Amino acid sequence: MNGGEIIRIEDLRFSYDGSTPVLRGVSLRVREGESLAIMGRSGSGKTTLLKLVAGLLSPYQGQIELRVPPKKIGYVPQQIGLVRNLTAIQNVLLGSLGRPGGPGRILGFFERSEMEKAMGLLDDLGIAHLAHRKAALLSGGERQRVAVARAFMQSPSLLLADEFVSDLDIVNAIEVMRITAEMCRKNKVTVLMTMHDAFLVRDFADRVALIKYGRIVRELPAKELDPTSLAALLTGDVAEADAKA
User: Fold this and answer.
1) What is the pLDDT of residues 41-68, one digit of tens each?
2) Could you tell me which residues come within 8 angstroms of residue 228 by beta carbon, excluding any fewer than 6 positions away?
3) What is the pTM of this model?
4) Distance (Å, rounded) from C-alpha 92 to C-alpha 9?
5) SS3 state at 38
6) Residue 156 CA: distances (Å) to CA of 38, 72, 225
7) Nearest by Cα to 122 from 114, 130, 110, 111
8) How far apart are CA 227 and CA 163, in angstroms?
9) Hey, which of 12, 74, 181, 205 would disulfide with 62, CB 3.0 to 4.6 Å?
10) Which CATH fold topology does 5-68+157-244 show?
11) At 29, is the secondary structure helix, strand, or coil?
């Protein structure tokens, strides 16, 4: 792996049932400190790729090399995954469970420094006043911010985010993206995310990788992404994708 790379993926192949390929030879590099967005149609393999990088799926063929330990990887899934009967701050504190701390943390007893960090993250995301409100009573945008805070509770070097603003209205989506991008720049966090909104990608990503039927078909700087031609780049059949690979 080159000195500036934090992720190196080589000829990655994966199938859920052993016969139908989902990823068909993905090769990808992510440099330390950059924000890379993966774009593609539903079913193209975006979420599967992120789950493989996160270590949530196996086995696979090919190589995934990470220059970051698993405990330093923050993951924001598309379905958020908050515990509805816990408060916002309790959900954020769940992000620290992967760190050493003995039986006390397992039983839900956290150090004062962790409580302060969790509250600080909620404050950064503009929802400190909702710290003690149960997740079930939060709006979609508020829950999304809690999920981001939970990921940053791990003090990640790498953030994996799967369509994490796709269910939000455009105003909330822009605000959550803006705050997340600021937190990543401030903490020098590398970002690998999946997104479908080309305008958000142009504003908040450094680079884009287009995936079609389990293959990366093009990479380009985010600023060069043309939303009007995106559909044409991502349509076609499997045979066409294979022919261009």
Assistant:
1) 988 999 999 999 999 999 999 999 999 9
2) none
3) 0.88
4) 30
5) strand
6) 20, 4, 28
7) 130
8) 17
9) 12
10) Rossmann fold (3.40.50)
11) strand
Going across the sheet that includes 5-15, the strands are 21-31, 5-15, 61-66
**Residue 50, H or E segment:** helix 46-54
Q: Where in the chain is the domain with CATH 3.40.50.300?
A: 5-68+157-244
Distance of alpha carbon 10 from alpha carbon 224, whole angstroms: 25
- What's the one-letter identity of residue 208? V
Residues 6+ apart with CB under 8 A from 161: 75, 76, 151, 180, 191, 192, 193, 194
Confidence of residue 98 (pLDDT cuts 50, 70, 90): low
Dihedral angle of Cα 72, 1, 160, 223, to the nearest 10 degrees = 130
Phi-psi label, residue 45: left if phi above 0, alpha if psi -120 to 50, beta otherwise:
left
